[in-house]
Amino acid sequence: MNKTIIPNINNLEPKWYVVDAADQRLGRLASEIAQILRGKNKPTYTPHLDTGDFVIVVNAEKVVVTGKKSSQKLYRRHSGRPGGMKVENFEKLQARIPERIIEQAVKGMLPKNSLGRKLFTKMKVYPGASHPHDAQQPEELILNTIPAGDN
Known about the structure:
Elements: E1 16-20, H1 26-38, E2 54-58, H2 69-72, E3 74-78, E4 85-89, H3 90-96, H4 98-107, H5 114-120, E5 123-125, E6 139-140
Parallel strand pairs: 1-2, 1-6, 2-5
Antiparallel strand pairs: 3-4
Protein backbone atom coordinates (compact mmCIF):
# COMPACT_ATOMS: atom_id res chain seq x y z
CA MET A 1 0.00 0.00 0.00
CA ASN A 2 1.36 3.42 -0.96
CA LYS A 3 1.35 6.11 1.66
CA THR A 4 1.66 9.83 1.20
CA ILE A 5 4.66 11.22 3.00
CA ILE A 6 3.85 14.39 4.92
CA PRO A 7 6.90 16.54 5.72
CA ASN A 8 7.54 17.49 9.31
CA ILE A 9 6.91 21.24 9.48
CA ASN A 10 9.34 21.63 12.40
CA ASN A 11 12.26 20.29 10.34
CA LEU A 12 11.61 22.51 7.31
CA GLU A 13 13.96 25.48 7.33
CA PRO A 14 12.63 28.17 4.97
CA LYS A 15 15.09 30.01 2.76
CA TRP A 16 15.07 33.72 2.04
CA TYR A 17 15.25 34.94 -1.53
CA VAL A 18 15.74 38.43 -2.98
CA VAL A 19 13.97 39.17 -6.27
CA ASP A 20 14.78 42.28 -8.29
CA ALA A 21 11.57 43.55 -9.91
CA ALA A 22 13.31 46.15 -12.08
CA ASP A 23 12.10 45.87 -15.70
CA GLN A 24 10.12 42.70 -14.99
CA ARG A 25 6.56 42.18 -16.19
CA LEU A 26 4.07 42.31 -13.36
CA GLY A 27 2.03 39.15 -13.97
CA ARG A 28 4.93 36.87 -14.79
CA LEU A 29 6.87 38.11 -11.78
CA ALA A 30 3.87 37.66 -9.47
CA SER A 31 3.21 34.08 -10.61
CA GLU A 32 6.84 33.07 -9.97
CA ILE A 33 6.78 34.69 -6.51
CA ALA A 34 3.49 32.96 -5.67
CA GLN A 35 4.96 29.57 -6.55
CA ILE A 36 7.99 30.14 -4.31
CA LEU A 37 5.77 31.33 -1.43
CA ARG A 38 3.60 28.25 -1.89
CA GLY A 39 6.61 25.89 -2.02
CA LYS A 40 5.76 24.38 -5.41
CA ASN A 41 9.44 24.51 -6.42
CA LYS A 42 10.37 21.97 -3.70
CA PRO A 43 10.00 18.20 -3.56
CA THR A 44 8.38 18.56 -0.11
CA TYR A 45 5.39 20.49 -1.51
CA THR A 46 2.15 19.62 0.23
CA PRO A 47 -1.03 21.47 -0.81
CA HIS A 48 -2.42 22.02 2.70
CA LEU A 49 0.86 22.93 4.44
CA ASP A 50 3.12 25.97 4.43
CA THR A 51 6.30 24.54 2.85
CA GLY A 52 7.31 27.71 1.01
CA ASP A 53 10.12 30.21 1.41
CA PHE A 54 10.35 33.91 2.20
CA VAL A 55 10.61 36.34 -0.72
CA ILE A 56 11.98 39.88 -0.58
CA VAL A 57 11.05 41.99 -3.60
CA VAL A 58 13.18 45.08 -4.27
CA ASN A 59 12.77 47.84 -6.88
CA ALA A 60 8.97 47.50 -6.88
CA GLU A 61 8.70 50.97 -8.39
CA LYS A 62 10.37 49.73 -11.59
CA VAL A 63 7.95 46.90 -12.42
CA VAL A 64 6.26 47.32 -15.82
CA VAL A 65 3.10 46.27 -17.60
CA THR A 66 2.62 45.89 -21.34
CA GLY A 67 0.28 47.63 -23.72
CA LYS A 68 -2.10 50.28 -22.43
CA LYS A 69 -2.42 48.70 -18.98
CA SER A 70 -0.46 51.51 -17.33
CA SER A 71 -3.32 53.92 -18.06
CA GLN A 72 -6.26 51.46 -18.18
CA LYS A 73 -5.60 48.99 -15.35
CA LEU A 74 -7.64 50.03 -12.32
CA TYR A 75 -7.09 49.34 -8.62
CA ARG A 76 -10.14 49.60 -6.37
CA ARG A 77 -10.44 49.85 -2.62
CA HIS A 78 -13.40 50.55 -0.39
CA SER A 79 -13.48 52.30 2.97
CA GLY A 80 -16.53 50.32 4.07
CA ARG A 81 -18.72 53.42 4.20
CA PRO A 82 -21.47 54.30 1.70
CA GLY A 83 -19.89 55.84 -1.37
CA GLY A 84 -16.41 54.91 -0.13
CA MET A 85 -15.11 53.36 -3.36
CA LYS A 86 -11.73 54.73 -4.42
CA VAL A 87 -10.46 53.94 -7.93
CA GLU A 88 -6.92 54.55 -9.12
CA ASN A 89 -5.07 53.56 -12.28
CA PHE A 90 -1.70 51.79 -12.45
CA GLU A 91 0.37 54.95 -13.08
CA LYS A 92 -1.04 56.86 -10.10
CA LEU A 93 -0.74 53.92 -7.71
CA GLN A 94 2.82 53.24 -8.86
CA ALA A 95 3.75 56.85 -8.16
CA ARG A 96 2.04 56.80 -4.74
CA ILE A 97 2.52 53.27 -3.29
CA PRO A 98 4.53 51.04 -5.70
CA GLU A 99 4.64 48.10 -3.25
CA ARG A 100 0.87 47.65 -3.33
CA ILE A 101 0.87 46.73 -7.03
CA ILE A 102 3.06 43.65 -6.52
CA GLU A 103 1.34 42.77 -3.24
CA GLN A 104 -2.12 42.70 -4.85
CA ALA A 105 -0.90 40.74 -7.87
CA VAL A 106 0.69 38.02 -5.71
CA LYS A 107 -2.17 37.95 -3.20
CA GLY A 108 -4.60 37.20 -6.02
CA MET A 109 -2.53 34.14 -6.97
CA LEU A 110 -2.48 32.62 -3.48
CA PRO A 111 -5.26 30.46 -1.97
CA LYS A 112 -8.24 32.37 -0.59
CA ASN A 113 -8.15 30.85 2.90
CA SER A 114 -6.14 30.95 6.13
CA LEU A 115 -3.16 29.26 4.42
CA GLY A 116 -3.08 31.97 1.76
CA ARG A 117 -3.14 34.71 4.39
CA LYS A 118 -0.27 33.03 6.22
CA LEU A 119 1.76 32.66 3.00
CA PHE A 120 1.19 36.33 2.14
CA THR A 121 3.00 37.40 5.32
CA LYS A 122 6.16 35.70 4.00
CA MET A 123 6.55 38.27 1.21
CA LYS A 124 8.27 41.60 1.87
CA VAL A 125 8.12 44.30 -0.83
CA TYR A 126 10.28 47.44 -0.94
CA PRO A 127 10.14 50.27 -3.50
CA GLY A 128 13.90 50.88 -3.61
CA ALA A 129 16.97 48.69 -3.94
CA SER A 130 17.64 48.31 -0.20
CA HIS A 131 15.95 46.08 2.38
CA PRO A 132 16.45 45.50 6.14
CA HIS A 133 16.73 41.67 5.94
CA ASP A 134 20.50 41.24 5.63
CA ALA A 135 20.57 39.22 8.87
CA GLN A 136 18.59 36.43 7.17
CA GLN A 137 21.32 36.08 4.49
CA PRO A 138 18.93 36.01 1.52
CA GLU A 139 19.99 34.44 -1.77
CA GLU A 140 19.69 36.36 -5.04
CA LEU A 141 17.00 34.71 -7.16
CA ILE A 142 17.01 35.28 -10.91
CA LEU A 143 13.57 34.53 -12.34
CA ASN A 144 13.24 33.27 -15.89
CA THR A 145 10.57 35.75 -16.89
CA ILE A 146 10.52 37.73 -20.09
CA PRO A 147 12.11 41.17 -19.48
CA ALA A 148 10.07 44.18 -20.49
CA GLY A 149 12.19 45.09 -23.52
CA ASP A 150 11.58 41.78 -25.36
CA ASN A 151 8.09 42.36 -26.75
